[in-house]
Amino acid sequence: MEEAAIGKNNICSTVAIRYRFVYENVGGGEPELQFSSHPLIKLQVEVPKDENKEELLPENVEYEDDVAYLRSLDPKEWKSQDHYKVLGIPNLRYKATDEIIKNAYRKKVLKHHPDKRKALGEEIKPDDDYFTCITMAYETLGNVNRRRAYDSVDPQFDNDLPCNSDIKKDFFKTFTHYFELNSRWSEKPNVPKLGDVNSSREDVEKFYSFWYDFKSWREYSYEDEEDKDKCQDRDERRYVDKLNKADRLRKKKEEMSRIRQLVDLAYSNDPRIAKFKQDDKDRKLAAKRAKQNAVQAKKEEEERILREAQLAKEQAEAAERAKIEAKRQEREAQKKALKKERKTLRDICKSNNYYTEDAEENLSRMTAIEGICERLSLKELEDLNKNLKNNGKSAFLKAIKENEAFLQKERLEILNATKKSNTGNNTPVVVMVAPDWNEDNIQLLVKAVNLFPAGTNQRWDVVANFINQHGTFSENSNKFNAKMVLSKAKDLQNTDFSKNNLKEVANKQAFDNFKKDKKNVLNIGESDISKKLEEDNRKSATNGEVKIWTTNEQQLLEQALKTYPASTPERWDRIAECLPDRSKKECMKRYKDLVETVKAKKAAQAAINK
Predict the structure, then answer these.
(1) pTM for the complete prediction?
(2) Which of 159, 265, 329, 535 has the greatest number of beta carbons closer than 10 A?
């Protein structure tokens, strides 16, 4: 225990500072400084004791006495001398306790004090008094702060880093030595050991974490180039103190850089770290592969489900197509069978000459046969054909009567239904019946088929409109549609006129009509014709009337324009033939008017867009 009073120039001169330094070797390192509190600012430096290490006793230490070395010392250069070697304990160095240092100093005083040497008859020169070096060594090592400063720059301390050959030879032995050597500077006690190849990962990480966060108490005040106690005034002392602090900070940074290089070198060459990194890499790779496998498995499962759904869909579609195909084939088979039975019925009627010489009755029977073919089912047609083969013409006449009775019954049912729906209404009921294929309508059909050849746009609608426009119909009959016209054209195409005189009668009737028309024309005098033309021209010129184009005429003109393109020879003659009530000139004029109308519309639209 020592007490020191603060000088009178200090503001805290009335405060006593008590301090106690306790040195302990912790794991072979330098003692730790710890401070304790006191009502009167106490300073206590304590280092925990290492219970596993035996404390050196003064009586167990061998003290060296190298007289030649002592005589070689220069008292003026005492600061650069090895103080431990001067006191005779060069091997203990920082491990030496205060008692050992005091005991070593006593031994040196008893033997090398100038009075002792003079008593032995030795002549002492003023410039060769090495005892001053012994005194300065004890003053340095016997004071805690000075010894700490000297130990920090101990010339015997190895500041080098291990070489690659030693690392490759024995990593653990090499770095254990260097880390234990540098552990003496640690501010924290219980410095962790490097361990061996079997050390756990936790211990290895704890070791490197400690050294990467290493706190060193090593300081370099002993190497200050300027002594501020020799300064003459306060400003000079401040300047010198500033220079010394800057130099200490530089050396401290170099020391921490050296420690960091040592730790980095150990970390990069540690086989355990390499193993841990490889384990981490393998674990990450395994996790990545597991994740990829999971993603791949999920993708394969989704693809499997998609394939199964697609397969099920394809199977369902195939089954549906097969079902539709079976129905289609069944319909085709029924259609073929029905067509066959219809042909059989027509052939039986033709081959057995069930038609008569009368053209009208013959046409009526043919129409009845066609109605029977359209009305009866396959089974009924088969039964009818068998009956015709067995019973002959009587069965044929009976079938015609039954067909007429059926048609009459159907007309009555329609009439009754119409009457019921219009009960209480005074509006007269008009019953529309199917159009009749008389001689005039058949001739118009033949003419229209020749007039509008195959390839005409909507050919059968055009033919139906042509027949409806120029044909003869009863008062309550409907108009022909494309389906009726097509069916009749097929019937006429399949009919064998060689076995009956229908064609001959039709040609004869057409010749009689031609003669009749010619006779009527001849009965009209030339004067009457000229008068009629003059009258028509005069009326047209006076009234300025123009015959209006009907919807049917417009449709026939458009269809004729499509049927006969501009490259057709005598195009407008062909077009005029399609419109019996219009001349070539009227058709050309109507076309020009339409073109002008379209151009005017386009010009107006372009003007609006601008």
Answers:
(1) 0.43
(2) 265
